[in-house]
From TrEMBL:
Record key words, sorted: Magnesium, Metal-binding
Name of the protein this chain belongs to: ATP/GTP-binding protein
Record keyword Metal-binding present: yes
Classification via InterPro entries: C-C_Bond_Lyase-like (IPR039480), Citrate_lyase_beta/mcl1/mcl2 (IPR011206), Pyrv/PenolPyrv_kinase-like_dom (IPR015813), Pyrv_kinase-like_dom_sf (IPR040442)
GO MF term (any one): magnesium ion binding
Necessary cofactors: Mg(2+)
């Protein structure tokens, strides 16, 4: 039996892919290196475990370009529905094991580590569809229990499962405990490195500790208490020297229209240049402008991918994950220079310092493998117009 594969933008017509990409996204398998799989998460869509036709929902999302999903048994499910949701998750994974979604990255988010071995024991064919477990409210005091549970589930099922801890606890957010807590978490994640795919950030819980809910005209980086905690998480856990992990961007909460308080932040210029002003208006009406800005800030702050709670957000995350022609050539120039020094970029619009930017360049080349490299003059607007239905 062939190994199931996953490829970003698999749902686009071949002619569209040819027009957009100089180097196409490469196929990904569950046996690829951890960093490649972590980058391949892209937009990770959460779905309640007690949703009707759970397997059918996952199939439809995959057909629309979603590559990673989390079946949520925690916040998305009422307390008295947890057992039912867990049973639905097992049934859906068993049903999906042999279908076209087998290459997806599928996870289950449990409320406590005790649920993990129970799910593993109940799975049949679904062991082939399960990629791992999301560990919410992750703290140093429960880290070993949760990570051990994932390792034991791997042994029971005879497959390599990954953990994705969610960093959202008061111990991380409050300044007086943050450094000690993150230092201990870093030690635990390093100990279980082979089973840690990525660390996720629970910004909604962080804001909730202060009675804050950010408006859609603001990004999480405008909320200083959350932004400070995120910066510390990156500092401890996402270092580019080989000791770090992939950290994913926090959820964007909004997807419905409302009367805007401020002028939209999505600039008109790139859309006007691509005869896409009407498309811009459609994006603004769907509140995607704020999401695009936050994705750009996620990347600027060292994160990859994003938690999403609505399918319409997936296209934005993936469009901004593709490597541009300019980025790619800068990365190739930097990665190929071993002696250090400074060179003008191929595009003649910046200086590439070879040593300081080497980690960045290697990261870009890894992302190019997963998300592809766009053709010259192809921008995120072109990708979005291809990905978002008219």
């Amino acid at each position: 039996m062939s190994t199931p594969t996953l490829r970003h933008f698999h749902h686009l017509d071949d002619a569209v892919v040819e027009r957009l990409f100089l180097h196409r996204p490469q196929p990904i398998t569950h046996g690829d290196p951890t960093r490649v799989l972590a980058l391949a998460l892209g937009a990770t869509l959460y779905v309640p475990g007690n949703r009707d036709d759970l397997a059918g929902t996952i199939r439809r999302r995959f057909a629309d370009g979603v590559t990673s999903m989390v079946i949520d048994l925690e916040d998305a499910v009422a307390d008295d529905q947890e057992d039912h949701a867990a049973a639905c998750a097992v049934a859906a994974l068993d049903e999906l094991a042999d279908g076209p979604t087998a290459g997806m990255l599928l996870f289950v988010r449990t409320r406590t580590p005790e649920r993990i071995p129970k799910i593993a024991a109940e799975l049949g064919a679904g062991r082939a569809a399960l990629s791992g477990f999301v560990l919410p409210k992750f703290t140093a005091s429960i880290a070993r229990e949760g990570l051990d549970a994932v390792v034991r589930a791997s042994e029971v099922l005879g497959t390599h499962l990954y953990a994705m801890p969610v960093l959202e606890s008061p111990e991380i957010v409050y300044r007086e405990t943050r450094d000690a807590e993150l230092s201990r978490i870093a030690q635990h994640l390093n100990e279980y490195r082979d089973h840690v795919l990525a660390a996720r950030i629970g910004a909604t819980d962080m804001c909730g500790m202060f009675g804050i809910r950010r408006d859609r005209d603001l990004t999480i980086y405008d909320v200083r208490v959350a932004a400070d905690a995120i910066a510390s998480i990156i500092n401890y856990l996402a270092r580019g020297d080989g000791t770090g992990h992939i950290v994913t961007g926090p959820v964007w909460e909004y997807f419905a229209d409302h009367e805007r308080l401020f002028r939209p932040t999505l600039r008109q210029t790139p859309f006007a240049e691509h005869d896409a002003v009407l498309f811009r208006q459609q994006l603004v009406s769907r509140d995607i402008d704020g999401l695009l800005r936050e994705i750009a800030l996620d990347r600027a702050n060292g994160m990859h991918g994003k938690t999403v709670i609505h399918p319409t957000h997936v296209a934005a995350v993936h469009a901004l994950s593709a490597v541009t022609h300019e980025e790619y050539h800068d990365a190739v120039d930097i990665a190929g220079g071993n002696a250090g020094g400074v060179r003008p970029s191929t595009y003649r619009n910046k200086m590439n310092e070879l040593k300081p930017h080497r980690h960045w360049a290697r990261g870009v080349l890894d992302r190019a493998h997963v998300f592809g490299v766009t053709n010259p003059n192809v921008t995120f607007v072109d990708l979005l117009t291809a990905l978002v239905p008219a």
